[in-house]
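To: structure desk
From: M.T.
Subject: fold request, one chain
Message: Could you run this one when you get a chance? Sequence is below, nothing fancy, just the single chain.
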Amino acid sequence: MTTFSIPDMSCGHCKSSVEAAIQKLDPAATVLVDLVTRRAEITSSHPEAALVAALAAVGFPAQSI
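Reply: Done. Structure tokens follow.
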């Protein structure tokens, strides 16, 4: 599991976009989004760089923490 800070995420639509981006990359991934802390916990077989790239592609720059 990797935890990402996603500062631009602030609403339900943002949450859905983040989840969809990761699920598109890895349908088996688990994504837990916390809008209050603006963090996402992602469990995936894909490398961290691929997850960051998928999130950036939908407008949500992310940084692992």
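Reply (cont.): The chain has a mean pLDDT of 97. Let me know if you need anything else for the meeting.
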